[in-house]
Write a structure and sequence with these properties.
By secondary structure, the chain is an alpha+beta fold. It has one domain: Endonuclease/exonuclease/phosphatase (Deoxyribonuclease I, Chain A), CATH 3.60.10.10. The strands form two sheets. A six-stranded mixed beta sheet has the order 3-4-2-1-12-11. A hairpin with a 7-residue loop joins strand 3 and strand 4.
Length: 263
């Protein structure tokens, strides 16, 4: 068995249209667990046959035209723990999936974008974030290893964006969004990418507009947070930028962590 466990998150921006990219990434990088967001497909349209052929089991929660999350397990079938974030029964958006895979409780999430703000979409983002904070507080205290992995739609600081000036009114940079992210970390979660690269400008998302990818005008909004039981096992973290450079790519690149396996 390999010494390290690799867990990744990838906003695929349409799993049917980007399926060749997803399969190429799985084959080359071989994450043990992969959290996917923005499936933009119904449950019935999820490409489970192709995922199985790539060597992965999967659980997913789809939605017509937008949202949708999945968790893939290399060589294993993830075991479902929770299919929705608690706290708002009327919320039907497919944004959260919690599973057990390879000995880790994996919480795959797609936090609302919140634009335009102010307005009902931003209000929903903050309510969703508050629900996450409440649920994550209990997860942080578990003696079992837990990871929060996904597209958080939050740029934590100005260091996490190429140039904040033109984004000041965007929901991703609002003080309310950033304050909630800080409160999440204050529960004891480790921002793995920043922990491994404290002084590096490192991005996970490049907008399709204004030539953002060729000039590396990016944002860091995809995060992998480790609870105190898992953080000591952190070995490395990074971004698979090559995936963003593919033709007709998602506007996100996969983000990953390597963790020591327990004895």
């Amino acid at each position: 068995m390999p010494r390290h466990l690799k867990i990744a998150t990838f906003n695929v921006n349409g799993i049917r249209s980007r399926l060749p990219h997803l399969l190429a990434w799985l084959k080359k990088e071989m994450p043990d667990v992969a959290c996917l967001q923005e499936l933009k497909a119904t449950d019935q349209a999820f490409p489970i046959d192709e995922i199985h052929a790539a060597g992965y089991g999967a659980l997913w929660r789809g939605q017509t035209s937008w949202n949708g999350v999945a968790v893939l397990g290399r060589g294993v079938d993830p075991v479902e723990s929770r299919r929705r974030l608690p706290g708002e029964r009327a919320d039907e958006q497919a944004r959260y999936l919690e599973v057990m895979a390879h000995g880790v409780l994996v919480c795959g999430l797609y936090l609302p974008n919140g634009n335009p703000q102010p307005g009902p979409k931003f209000d929903y983002k903050l309510r969703w974030f508050d629900r996450l904070l409440k649920h994550a507080r209990a997860l942080a205290k578990l003696e079992h290893p837990v990871i929060l992995a996904g597209d958080f739609n939050v740029v934590p600081t100005d260091f996490d964006i190429y140039d904040p000036k033109s984004w000041r009114k965007d929901a991703l940079l609002q003080p309310e969004s950033r304050e909630r992210y800080e409160r999440l970390l204050a529960q004891g979660w480790t921002d793995s990418l920043r922990a491994m690269h404290p002084e590096e400008r490192i991005y996970t998302f490049w907008d399709y507009f204004r030539n953002h990818w060729p000039r590396d005008a990016g944002l860091r909004i995809d995060h992998l947070l480790l609870n105190p039981a898992l953080a000591p096992r952190l070995v490395d973290a990074g971004v698979d930028r090559w995936v963003r450079g593919l033709e007709k790519a998602s506007d996100h690149a996969p983000v990953w962590v390597k963790l020591r396996r327990p004895p």
